[in-house]
Amino acid sequence: xxxxxxxxxxxxxxxxxxxxxxxxxxxxxxxxxxxxxxxxxxxxxxxxxxxxxxxxxxxxxxxxxxxxxxxxxxxxxxxxxxxxxxxxxxxxxxxxxxxxxxxxxxxxxxxxxxxxxxxxxxxxxxxxxxxxxxxxxxxxxxxxxxxxxxxxxxxxxxxxxxxxxxxxxxxxxxxx
Length: 176
Description:
Layout: E1 2-14, E2 21-34, H1 44-54, E3 60-61, H2 64-72, E4 78-82, H3 86-89, E5 98-99, H4 105-108, H5 113-120, E6 130-134, H6 139-150, E7 156-158, H7 162-170
Parallel strand pairs: 3-7, 4-5, 4-6, 6-7
Antiparallel strand pairs: 1-2
């Protein structure tokens, strides 16, 4: 199906003696657009794949009760990543967590495994490896989950309670 639409466009000119733009006259342009669902488009699957990657997405949310056992028995196959900045981590962190600040996460995920380990001191997570993100209050961990997903990671968890929830439940003084 073809869709016809009229779009009003204005012609804008600039005078040689003035830098001010002036509108001369409106014009109507005929726009013809092929509906994306029409057969013979050829790129329908490619569009679906692109839309799948770009749609809003939320990682599986993990609770304190689900996270606590993971901190008592850490595994090399599961990462707990604190995406707060290093000065925030000085106030404390969840046991077994490694720090990878959100400010460097996108570029870090593009490093080779060797460069990653040299820069951050731990192995780069594999794309299918379980990765749990947390921050101070859950906002940055949600962003980190999205960054990881867009970089091909598939087993992502988000501890949205984050540091504030952890310190409240553990009875420790958290950062205000």
